[in-house]
Write a structure and sequence with these properties.
With 461 residues, this protein is mostly helical. The chain contains 21 helices and no strands.
Length: 461
């Protein structure tokens, strides 16, 4: 608005200055534009600029009079303010009977393929991802309102009863069978080897092993100077023995891991070695389980588990963390302990990492599947398109009588000043062009009339 207004004002000011500057009596151009042709040209310019000034002034007055009193003149000015009621009636009538008329709207809507518009939305502007985000937000709100305490209290007795009736021996046997299977035995052995290796290499364990080596060496030497001499001549210090032991263990563990991790077509030696390790491990687990797998032991273990296991609290915490997406109480407790141990950092804001909810991936997968299904089902697209158009038409019919009233209520909330400012902010930029056009048209008309007057004057002579 400011740009066109500036142009219009500059045009008017320039027209006024040039109108004065081209007056034949005082214009400095009269010394340049001499003779009959020069006098005609100077008169033509003067009449053109004078008419442009008059036209620009008239249009400025007209445009300004729509919103306020130009030059303080109140006669037939402030048109918008004085005719507010009539203008509002016209707007409401226009919107209700024409702009938002059901027939007119549906003529446009019927020409559109709403199903294709929806597909375009999914495939453009990240519509698919936005839909997933919307579904997640809806589900978050839905699950966030769950009373997990009440749910857990209802589910806990069922879970406890199932645990009581559980055939512990059968479950135990099934677990042993899974653990000793080839696939799982390999993974467990690799994990045990890796973990054992780390434990052996730890500083504390190395110190303990070194102590044992020292004790064994001293016991071996006893009072025998010969044994001490032999060990000394071979440079077998306690540290050297520990180093040899570490190298031997590292080599054995690396060889075992290499055999267990081997895949594809294996040579006979590797396959035999892997089979021996798995068989040994399976035998160890089976023998160890045989010593524990009595019905009495398992039943006692089950009773102890039921007594110590707070099923209601477990279910509530699991639902809060995995379904509602709340912070794990154990993580929060750990954070609080760290802050208590470091009072200087206690005031720092710490972002606790939340565990992803279990339904997120499933919800995203379902959204993708349904969108792809919709894209490939032409018949469903036709039904969807008809459904949306019928829905829009029924909605328009239902609220047809309320729309004009809603518009009137919205306009009534504006004060006279607010309404004037609102309308001016939306149309004043275009109205300023009227002023510019008025100056240009005035200049053309002024010059045209001057030419006509000169022709008539010449003919009369």
């Amino acid at each position: 608005m400011a740009d066109n207004k500036t142009k219009a004002t500059a045009t008017l000011a320039a027209s006024a200055v040039l109108a004065v500057s081209t007056l034949p009596e005082i214009s400095p151009l009269k010394f340049i534009l001499t003779g009959s042709v020069g006098g005609f040209t100077l008169g033509l310019l003067n009449h053109g600029f004078l008419a442009a000034t008059i036209g620009g002034m008239a249009d400025w007055f007209g445009v300004t009079a729509l919103f306020r009193k130009p030059l303080g003149i109140g006669f037939h000015t402030e048109i918008l303010r004085r005719n507010r009621a009539r203008i509002m009636d016209a707007i409401v009538e226009f919107v209700g009977s024409d702009l938002l008329n059901t027939k007119n709207i549906m003529e446009t809507v019927r020409d559109e393929n709403t199903a294709q518009l929806l597909i375009d939305y999914f495939e453009q502007n990240k519509g698919r991802e936005k839909t997933k985000i919307l579904v997640r937000e809806i589900l978050s709100e839905l699950f966030g309102g769950l009373d997990t305490k009440k749910i857990s209290q209802g589910v806990a007795p069922i879970l406890e009863n199932e645990i009581k009736n559980l055939d512990a021996q059968k479950l135990f046997d099934a677990v042993i069978k899974v653990v000793t299977s080839d696939k799982h035995s390999r993974k467990i052995l690799i994990t045990l080897l890796d973990t054992g290796h780390k434990i052996l290499q730890s500083k504390h364990m190395q110190e303990e092993i070194l102590k044992k080596i020292t004790e064994l060496r001293e016991a071996y030497e006893g009072d025998s100077a010969g044994r001490a001499l032999v060990l000394s001549s071979m440079d077998l210090t306690d540290e050297k023995i520990l180093s040899i032991l570490n190298e031997t263990v590292d080599k054995k563990i690396n060889e075992a891991e290499k055999i267990l991790k081997a895949e594809g077509m294996l040579d006979a030696e590797t396959a035999r070695a892997a089979g021996e390790m798995i068989k040994t491990f399976g035998g160890f687990v089976t023998n160890a389980a045989g010593g524990l797998g009595t019905k009495k032991f398992l039943d006692e273990l089950k009773i102890l588990f039921i007594e110590k296991f707070d099923s209601a609290n477990y279910i509530k915490t699991w639902l809060d963390v995995n379904v509602k997406g709340e912070i794990d109480p154990k993580v929060l407790e750990s954070l609080q302990r760290k802050q208590a141990a470091n009072p200087k950092d206690a005031k720092k804001i710490v972002e606790v990492e939340r565990k992803p909810v279990i339904w997120k991936d499933a919800a995203d997968f379902l959204v993708d599947a349904k969108i792809d299904e919709f894209k490939n089902d032409v018949e469903f697209q036709k039904k969807f398109d008809a459904l949306i158009k019928d829905f829009v038409e029924n909605l328009l019919e239902e609220y047809r009588g309320q729309i004009p009233q809603m518009i009137r209520e919205r306009l009534d909330k504006f004060s006279d000043d607010e309404l004037t400012e609102f309308v001016e902010s939306h149309v004043a930029d275009d109205l300023q062009m009227i002023r510019i056009n008025g100056s240009v048209c005035g200049a053309l008309v002024g010059m045209f009339l001057y030419v006509i007057s000169q022709i008539i004057e010449h003919l009369v002579r």
